[in-house]
Amino acid sequence: xxxxxxxAWGAGDDLTGLTHHSDHGSNYTAMVYTDRLVELGAVxxxxxxxxxxxxxxxxxxxxxxxxxxxxxxxPWRTVEQVELATLECVWWxxxxxxxxxxxxxxxxEVEDASYADQKSGQPAPAGQGSP
Length: 131
Fold this sequence. Notes:
Layout: H1 2-10, E1 19-22, H2 26-29, H3 31-40, E2 43-46, H4 56-73, H5 79-95, H6 107-120
Parallel strand pairs: 1-2
């Protein structure tokens, strides 16, 4: 719930249009959590039980996180070290790392371009390469 509230705060407490996809874990299917999602404008979504295909992107990100950060920079002495390194890694991922899936742009560049297109009233170009 804290992570959701932090994300909501960062988005001005408006997650309208966001689809929050998760597994069927009790923390994600709890009424208080799904009610909070709806209150923020997000649409809760869960995949089918026992189907790992819905979770492929999350598993790929988790694998990169473990391979590129946890195992390479460890051993870790405290949870705080892992938390700070994770914050740095997330910032780098979103602001500096070029993504092939985004035509070698950063996620923040693509997001900024999307918002600029919305404000200008011009439709964003379909497909990749639109920042």
